Amino acid sequence: MFFLRSIRFRITLWYVLTVALILGASGVFWYLSLARTLQTELDDRLLTIATNVAEQVQGAPLQDSALCRGLAHELALSGAGAFVGIYDAQGRLWCETLPDALPDEEAPVLAALAEAGQPRYQTIKRNNDALRILDQPLLLGAAVHGIVRVGTSEKPAQRILDRLTLILLLSFPLPLAALALGGWFLADRALAPVEDITQTISQINTDSLSRRLPQGDERNEIGRLVKNFNHMLEQLENSFRRMRQFAADASHELRTPLTVLRGETEVALRWGKDPEELRQVLESNLEEIDRMGRIIDDLLLLAKSEAGETPMTIKRVNLNQLLHELAMQGKILGENKGIAVSFNLPEKAVLYTDGDELRLHQMLLNLVSNGIKYTPTGGRVDLRLIRADGQAEISVSDTGVGMEAEHLQRIFDRFYRIDSNLTLETGAGLGLSIVKWIIEAHHGRIEVSSKPGEGSCFKVYLPLAAADTDID
């Protein structure tokens, strides 16, 4: 069954069937063409004989028996294999070169043909033979003198057609067999790369996603298939690598607060006697529980965003007002560290965008919180909103520790943290991943620039709503 279902077999079968159909159609065409040619030649020969007989009969009495004998002798010598009958205008037989050779025809029918003055060709089956008959009116001027009936057997022509049929039938199997073998060989050669691909694919699993198929000529279908499959393997490898890294980082991030919870709880159970000590342990445990809750909430948000299950409430958002509110919140967050938070808004324009106001607020608050978190005491965080190239540009810059250029492409990865920042306040490493997701969900983009010891600047670009208004 596999053999019959294989692509190689089906390609060969369709190839052979197509060629057989073409050969069959060609054979039928040549058969019909030859049959038509032979009949035309036969009709022309009958017409020639009828014309010669009519010329000999012109002016001679139809009762002249010598004329009839002469016609029979002349036809016998010519070897034409034809026989002639001459009838008068009433359809009565006068002369017949070969008795009973012509089929009988009723006299009124022949008289009507003579009167019509038009020749008639017909094929009549008689005694396992087919006779081709021509009825040619015999005219003397405009007057009907009689009718000449000429006939001959179609057996010679049929023998030619039968021989052609036999030749075609005998010549079909051999070329079809040769074509089938050739088609099988060509299909095998054409599908050999597919078989190699199948063998290689069967050896690829989750532990060997780094393997690649040998790259062929990209100008053909197999080469493009290999290229696309290698691209898919690369994407799968990256996805699996991110999944493994995600699982490892998530387990690490959750293990730390769990370890703290376990250790502090065990200490409290063994040695805690003072109510104040127990209270401090419970407060510390509550902090770790809150930390785990935030990590789990962030992970759940990112997982839902990737699955497209995070709903967005899209409405017109006033970016000037949003940035003003964030600046006020930022000032409160920065007071404990002595960090100044300032903002700069367009003086004569109110910029709007269409989006989810809560998500946009969350995104900007994450950027402001990061700026405060990684800026030493006495530093500053600046917020600015401008119109740039038909978009709203929101920049959040700080005077913090900054980053090396090698980190800028990875800071939006989940759980990615820079070792040099571990001495400062640290989070789970999910904030910037959420920031990037929210921006992309709003069809925007984010850019970052940074220098170690000088600070960082994040620029968010969002599409402007059509109803931006200028303030007069």
UniProtKB/TrEMBL annotation:
CDD domains: HAMP, HisKA. It catalyses: ATP + protein L-histidine = ADP + protein N-phospho-L-histidine. It is a multi-pass membrane protein. One of its GO terms (molecular function) is ATP binding. Its EC number is 2.7.13.3. Keywords: ATP-binding, Cell inner membrane, Cell membrane, Kinase, Membrane, Nucleotide-binding, Phosphoprotein, Transferase, Transmembrane, Transmembrane helix, Two-component regulatory system. Residues 1-43 form the TLC domain. Gene3D superfamilies: 1.10.287.130, 6.10.340.10, Histidine kinase-like ATPase, C-terminal domain. This is histidine kinase. It comes from Geoalkalibacter ferrihydriticus DSM 17813.
